[in-house]
Amino acid sequence: MMKTMPRFTFSLLFIFFFHCSTIVAQAPAPALSPGPAAPPDIYKILTKAGQFTVLIRLLRSTQVGNQINSQLSDSKSELTFFAPTDNAFSSLKTGTLNSLSDQQKVMLVQFHLIPSFISLTNFQTLSNPVQTQASNTYEFPLNITTSGNQVNMTTGLVNTSISGTVYSDNQLAIYQVEKVLQPLGIFAPRAPAPAPAPAAPKEKKKSAASKSPVASVDASGAVGVKRNGIVSIGFSLLLATIFL
């Protein structure tokens, strides 16, 4: 009896440790906490959506795209962007974009950007003119109205509507539009320059008649002739008339 006791104890210990190790091996690994989500990148979003090649090029050349991504890196920042398609740009008059200055191109892109997040159901709450990142003055008016589920907008030169949602995440909303929003401050026809004032009439030269001899009559009826500034008086003629 004394000899079998250690073997029995050892067997119990072996079973105990084997059971414990099995429980530990089967325990689930602790879940890793997810890191902060990366901010949205407007270049990646538009590239993935397709049909925004011209807009992406314009965002890069004006650096407005970089400014948008910089703003979105702050989780408190909100933006709404109206994205014209390649067809929208192709419908512009040939050479329109090339005729704009660098500053006008920046203002054009910023005119499509609203500094707040607006869902499709909240456009009806906006007050006109809507403030954009370009300006809300009379030169850059953007008026937005709704009709049922349709969102319409006008710049005074262009009327269009939202044709679809490209992206929305409660911080950034990108909506597709089929026309480029053309603000009055850049595309309004300019008044023609006033015509130059007519030239003043030239002073007329003295006529030849003013240089010819001028007959003059004095109080006595005598006639004299003024030639080259010298006046001869017909006094002798007067005396001859008296004595005749």
Automatic annotation (TrEMBL):
InterPro entries attached to this UniProt entry: FAS1_dom_sf, FAS1_domain, FLA_A
Gene Ontology BP term (one): plant-type secondary cell wall biogenesis
Bilayer-crossing regions: none
Membrane topology: Lipid-anchor; GPI-anchor
Ranges of residues in domain FAS1: 39-181
Database matches in PROSITE patterns: FAS1
Keywords: Cell membrane, Glycoprotein, GPI-anchor, Lipoprotein, Membrane, Proteoglycan, Signal
Region forming the signal peptide: 1-25
Primary localization class, coarse: membrane
Subcellular location: Cell membrane
Gene Ontology cellular component list: plasma membrane; side of membrane
Pfam family, one: Fasciclin
SUPFAM superfamilies in the record: FAS1 domain
Sequence similarity: Belongs to the fasciclin-like AGP family.
Record's function text: May be a cell surface adhesion protein.
Record's protein name: FAS1 domain-containing protein
Organism this protein belongs to: Rhamnella rubrinervis
